[in-house]
Specification:
Length: about 375
Amino acid sequence: MRIGIYADLSSTGAGEGADAVRGATLRVNLANDAGGLGGRRVELVPVDARQSSADAVRAFSKLAQQEGACAVIGAVAPGVDLAVSPVAELSRVPLVTLSMDDRVVLPDLLPGAPDRTGGARRYAFLAQASAAQSASAMAAYAAERLAVSRYATLYDAARPLSVLQARSFESAVRRLRGQVVASVPLAETDLPAVAASLQKSGAEAVYICAMTESAARAARVVREAAPSMLLLGNRAWGPPMASIGGAAVNGAWFTVPYAPDDPSMRDLGRPMAAVSPDDFQVSAASAWDAVSLILAAVRKAGTSNPARVRDALEQARGFKTLRGTFDMERSTHRPLNPVVAVMRIVDGAYLTDNPRYVLKGSRTPGS
């Protein structure tokens, strides 16, 4: 039985890609050490897709058609799997993406309107909390644990995923009866105007959802304009944000799919050798869980036939992952009540505030 995986193994994202393949390999080895699946050995077939949508489509087609994979684990890089998910539909082979981009599984979703999800692609599934769900989790956590009620958002208008996270965060704030007092595009050429907008807003916290370098520059502006404003962030606030942002990002809160010191990560950390507290290994953990989901689906289906595996993935209830059981939301093919880790940056170090914060359905876009 074969499981495919494609990742960037030779381009700018090769580190994350290698982590993903390593995590998937460890999970497959664990299954084989336990006797395989129904006595059948599981084989992982990796293919280099760099960070190119065209290469990813070719990689998926090779794995699905030539290698006979029962399911294929997709890329970490945002945007790449947007081109692959319709190919999975045509090939009738499940794609379990490591991307957080909701649009991979929800083709009708518009970044500016995350509450209108539309229908899910039949053969595409998310293996972890999506970008929209992670943003909603940050809003829910700030309301529940940080007692914040007035928020601003800073986002990159040129990046659809940044817009999606900003709007998802704002939607969650309103559902929680908070106020969004400013929503500001992050104009790199006019940071003084950004600062002025924040000063006038009276926000208690600002959610900055941009790539690491841009978010670090925005954090410096916020610190100068409103020193007491809480900083909230997305996955881009993980390493190396503390070293890039320096004092400006001290005290910031952010969400990631996995906390490095979560006890469940020991299964992953031991075979991957020394894993420091600052080495999140998010891609490795996501790929480990993606393999777990596929193995459980094959076991539930009683066959490695891709169409039957797809049906089992959609009906997933109680699938075992690194952090507990996993249910798939049938209408969106995203995790139901997803778990995220809430982290802080304190004096240049990354501290876990809550390793398993659960986002309930009523606080999630489209639920």
